[in-house]
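User: I'm writing a tutorial on reading structure tokens. Could you give me a worked example: one chain, its sequence, then its tokens, then a sentence or two explaining what the tokens reveal?
Assistant: Sure. Here is the example chain.
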Amino acid sequence: MINTALTEIFRIEFPIIQAGMAGKVTNAKLVSSVCHGGGLGTLGAGYMSPEMIRYHIGEIRKLTTRPFAVNLLIQDEEYNKEMFEEGKKRLAPYYKQFKISMDEVVLPSYTWRDQLNVLIEEQVEIFSFAFGVPDESTLKYIRSKGIKTIGTATSVKEACFLEEIGIDAVVAQGLEAGGHRGGFFESDPLVGSLALIPQIVDHLQIPVIAAGGIMDGRGVVAAFSLGASGVQLGTAFLSTFESEAHPKHKEALFSSTERSTELTTAFSGKLARGLTNKLMKELSEDLSSIAPYPLQHYLTAPIRQKATLVNDERYMGMWGGQGSRYCRLKSAHSVVRDIIRETNETIKQLSRHSSLS
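And here are its predicted structure tokens:
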């Protein structure tokens, strides 16, 4: 496997990062399993309370002494409570269907800054983020504590901005990626990985992490050939033994094709790629009724959570990328090791069959 600037900066064996998938997918077992495989595990803490983040960090440290990351979602705007109440009225039929009390549909009392304070107090080695960017004074303080940072970009403009403010590495997220689009400028150019990665690489001096549609060693080699210093995979870890994705979600991944996912704002108000289902289709019928992020997330979260409890995949939020058919039913450790082996094999095959001189 290729040693890169990424392995040195983050003190990891291989430049493979498990994406910080928010929700209830990532846990201590998944993060530590990736770390023990030689990659960088990430706790997706975007929707966790500060207390839950502290708990999960403690659980991870019981299982591994290796470096791991914690991912947060940066959102500075104040909640529009009037718009939130209007959204509750629009979704009332779903709440009634799943016997959800209006008291269960609430906004969080904490902010990303409260979450970040836990990372600082617990001396987490790596802080990754998406949807926004911490302010200059916050980043300066984080650096003073020795915490490394990873930002997410969906365009060259975003990537250059992240480098300018001193971020240690940038994820170049292609259109194929599952889950939320991680960019922070107003418009998302929706560029695929093959076009986006080399353009970002050519404009930056810091390491670039390729993301979007990478599921095996072939994708890793392709990313390296485009100039990336490492890769980030999310969908590839959704189907692992340690993942807390619902069994119905995993089944849908295994039976998926390249046409099974769609980009939607229906679940959160922010563009994200997931497996198409009844709830996604129904909410997408009237785009004007979808509240902005993160209001829509908190409006639909109780529906998706209750659907998960009653095993109704029609109303779950099932994220996944365009390469989801390559998901594997294995431990996260095994997935990392498989990808490392496949990467080495692909490099050897290319060397044998190359006609270049």
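What the tokens reveal: The two ends are 23 Å apart (CA to CA). The longest helix spans residues 332-353.
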